[in-house]
Design goal:
It comes from Amycolatopsis minnesotensis. This protein is α+β, with helices and mostly antiparallel strands. The protein is built from three helices and seven strands; from the N terminus they run ααβββββββα.
Length: 173
């Protein structure tokens, strides 16, 4: 090892050792403690039941009772009206309303009653279907998806009506 290398190593070790100070009494605490897991602040959607919400927003539209999703029973619920549309409601704790946007040209950003929302048209590359995601702070969303055999415009019209009915039922933080 050269003299220069030894000097740099020694200086680095001296600085590292000298950087330590005496211990301070007490317990460290963050200035903004994180919400406790399971709290309504950590998951504002913890008490939301997707099938209950979907049933309420579909009242008067002659849809059969909603059923939990086969894969995501706690967070997603859907129904289908023969000759009408498939309607899905999903609660997504831990995912902001504007995450996972795949096609910005089919996306419209806006709000419903002051709550941030995003509408996505022509779902999955299909020439129909519409979805609205509503923000639930601090970092969650609830989405409504409508897919039918009609047109994107009709699907979006229905999903906008349902999102407008849904918004006042969501937690406000």
């Amino acid at each position: 090892m050269s003299k220069v290398s030894r000097f740099v190593l020694a200086a680095t070790l001296a600085l590292a050792a000298g950087g330590c100070s005496t211990a301070v009494q007490g317990t460290p605490t963050p200035s903004n403690p994180a919400p406790q897991a399971g709290s309504s602040e950590a998951n504002p959607l913890a008490s939301v039941v997707s099938c209950d919400l979907l049933g309420k927003i579909l009242q008067g539209l002659d849809y059969p009772p909603a059923a939990p999703d086969i894969i995501n029973k706690k967070q997603a619920c859907s129904t289908h009206k023969p000759g009408g549309a498939n309607v899905l409601l999903q609660v997504s704790p831990g995912f902001a309303y504007d995450e996972r946007r795949t096609n910005p040209s089919k996306t419209k950003v806006g709000d419903i009653h002051g709550r941030k929302a995003i509408q996505v048209r022509d779902l999955g590359g299909a020439p129909r279907g519409c979805d609205v995601k509503l923000e639930v702070k601090p970092h969650s969303n609830v989405s409504i998806t409508v897919i039918s055999e009609t047109t994107t415009e009709q699907d979006c019209s229905l999903v906008d009506e349902l999102a407008t009915r849904l918004e006042p039922m969501l937690p406000k933080i």
